[in-house]
Amino acid sequence: MAWEERWSRPVAVATFGSILFIVAAIVVASQFGGADGDSELLRNVEAHRSAQLVSSILQAIGVGLLAAPLYYLFRAADARSETMRSQLVGVVIAAPLFLAILAILSGVSTLHAASEFVSDEVPRLMAKGVALGSDRANDIATDAITEAPLRPLAAGFGLGGQIGFAIAMLYTTLHAMRTGLLTRFWGSLGMALGAVSFLFFQFTLLWFIYFGLLLLGAVPEGKPPAWKSGEAEPWPTPGEKAAEGLDEREDEAEARD
């Protein structure tokens, strides 16, 4: 509990910092986004090479910082649970770092593809009278992206990071809910967002906003009791709630009698 108290604010700051870095990366990337097809995308990237590089770095920092809240919650749940596998902490830390490496490798490989496409393929297409937005130009641009030197390495880190992140979110939020560190709603939401993080990673940031506020004690309902007791405080099941309500009504009836 002393460790949790000492690191709650730094982890909250890292959590909000992660979100800010990711949002900033999206804003910077908007300078070369909105292209109609890969051919225009690569031309825009080549015209804004510094923006592409900055966006990749910001995204890498933002995603990498997510290791802090995930590790913090994993350790807190592990201290209160007898069934958690402590060895999975490696996945919790490695998954965001793999995604950070993916952001850098993907950005660099896209820069390489843009340079090759604009310097070599665009003049040939123009000489043949092929428009850049045509299917032929887009196919060539797509091949340039997929055949970039670092693309296979980026794909490997991306696959490992995405699978690891989904496992880390599912496993950590599940046990955090079971030990009473998260309410049933936020625990279930964290599990659901972790499962679909492959497709909707940005929506996962909503859960991290809540967790950052929770660490600061800024949520309306306050921290669940397990944070203060240092022990697991499982939430009662619907059947247990119904039985408790029945016992209370019987006690009230006896008191009236």
Question: Care to describe what's here?
Answer:
The protein is mainly alpha-helical. The radius of gyration is 24 Å and the shape is elongated. The model has no long low-confidence stretch (mean pLDDT 87). It has helices at residues 2-29, 38-47, 49-65, 67-80, 89-127, 135-146, 151-178, 184-195, 201-215, 225-229, 238-256. The longest helix has 39 residues, at 89-127. Helix 3 packs antiparallel against helix 5, helix 4 (67-80) runs parallel beside helix 7 and helix 7 (151-178) packs antiparallel against helix 8 (184-195). It has eleven helices and no strands.
* Shape by Cα distribution: elongated
- Helical amount: over 70%
Estimated structural class: mainly alpha
Question: What value does the Rg take, in angstroms?
Answer: 24 Å
- What is the number of E strands? 0
Spell the H/E element sequence: HHHHHHHHHHH
Q: Estimate what percentage of residues fall within beta strands.
A: under 5%
Quick check: average pLDDT? 87
Number of helices: 11
What's the end-to-end separation, in Å? Answer: 46 Å
Biggest sheet, in brief? Answer: none
Unreliably modeled segments: none
Question: Can you give keywords for this protein?
Answer:
257 residues, mainly alpha, 77% helix, 0% strand
In short:
By secondary structure, the chain is mainly α. It has helices at residues 2-29, 38-47, 49-65, 67-80, 89-127, 135-146, 151-178, 184-195, 201-215, 225-229, 238-256. α4 packs parallel to α7.
